[in-house]
Amino acid sequence: MANVIVRPPWHLPDSAVTPESVYHRRRDFLRAMGFIGGGLAVGLPALAQSTNLAKATAFSAGKRNPDFNPTVRLSDEEAATHYNNFYEFSTTKTRVRDLASRFRTDPWTLEVNGLCENPLKLGLNDLLQGFPHEERVYRFRCVVAWSMVVPWSGFPLAQLIAKAKPKAEAKFVAFTAVLRPEEMPGVVRLPDYPWPYTEGLRMDEALHPLTMVATGLYGKPLPKQNGAPVRLVVPWKYGYKSIKSIVRIEFTAKQPSTLWETLNAQEYPFESNVDPQVPHPRWSQASERVVDTGERIPTQYLNGYADLVAKLYPKRKV
Fold first, then answer.
1. Is 31 helix (H, G, I), strand (E, B) or coil?
2. Backbone φ, ψ for residue 151 (5° rounding)
3. How far is CA 208 from CA 18, 211, 234, 309, in A?
4. Distance CA 255, CA 130 (A)
5. How far apart, in Å, do the first and last CA atoms of the chain sit?
6. Is 317 part of any domain?
């Protein structure tokens, strides 16, 4: 009998792998996009600060989890760390890295409270040493139809929730990002936004094994422009649900308000699952642009994780 290879739901075929000739031209692409070249000197302070963070804390990327290790080319690290949505610094993706270079990420305190039996106040080393870290390769899909495939380091959010012991009446988890206008020039430029940045999940979404607390990227401490020192990663939802630079996690009985839903609930609803059949009011979601190659590929329902999370949304017919 022939061996039957059962592919995981997030597996990508060989046809999705960028040809070697294209891969070797990636630096030309990045230079054309303004990611490398003249901006190299600007990036040196951020690199030094990332190194200092690694020395000051006990970061370990952990081993790559074989259950989350698709046989597909990762997005170029240089592109993934130079093309970032982080409105607290800038609405221009290629400027975030430079503007975040003076952002202080150590020391850090994450408070976990609300409807729970064991409120927590965790420092950065508590997060890095108190939970077993592993690396997972996830798809990442932005609401404006671009995507990456990147390796995150961290641990399931469910492990942190278990330590806090939420009460039975806790039905949602609310997240709040840090707010420091003196270090975040984008906050001053967007005075009408309901700062600080807030997000939320249903409790069953928060407890799902895919939902991750990330402290690293590409085997290194999480870069500031990518949400250092601690962020959320929910790979089946649009990227803005994966809140960056978290300072508070709160268990609530009612659905929490979120920044984007408060601004425009029609365009950015609370659920915000990746769904190619549900267009954004201003553009199609049927396909996405791979950031570092420019290739246009079809978008998958729940970002390719439907076999794992579709049961959370029984009303949606796949």
1. helix
2. -95, 115
3. 31, 6, 9, 8
4. 29
5. 32
6. no
Residue 47 lies in domain: 22-312
Closest C-alpha to 256, from 200, 312, 296: 200
The answer to whether position 46 is within a domain reads: yes
251-280: per-residue pLDDT in tens? 999 999 999 999 999 999 999 999 999 999
Separation CA 245–CA 222 (nearest Å): 10
DSSP state of 301: G
How far is 94 from 216, CA to CA, in rounded Å? 20
Query: What SS3 class is residue 189?
Result: helix
- Alpha helical stretches, state H, the chain: 20-24, 26-33, 40-56, 77-80, 96-99, 124-129, 157-164, 185-189, 203-207, 259-263, 306-309
CATH number for the domain including 32?
Answer: 3.90.420.10
Q: Determine contact, residues 246/196, Cβ cutoff 8 Å.
A: no
Q: Is residue 2 part of a domain?
A: no
**How far apart are the C-alpha atoms of 188 and 257, rounded to whole Å?**
21
Answer yes or no: pTM beyond 0.70.
yes
The residue among 38, 14, 12, 26 whose CA lies nearest residue 294 is 26
Q: Can you read off the two tokens belonging to residue 215?
A: 């402290």
Q: Of 110, 291, 121, 144, whose CA–CA distance to 213 is shortest?
A: 110
Is the separation of the CB atoms in 261 and 270 below 8 Å? yes
Indicate whether 3 belongs to any domain.
Answer: no
What one-character-per-residue DSSP string does 133-150 give? -EEEEEEEE-TTSEEEEE
Q: In the chain, how many domains are there? A: 1
Distances (CA, A) of 290 to 33, 136, 306: 14, 19, 20
Q: Give CA–CA dist 280/255, Å, rounded.
A: 22
pLDDT digits (tens, 9 = 90+) for 96-155: 999 999 999 999 999 999 999 999 999 999 999 999 999 999 999 999 999 999 999 999
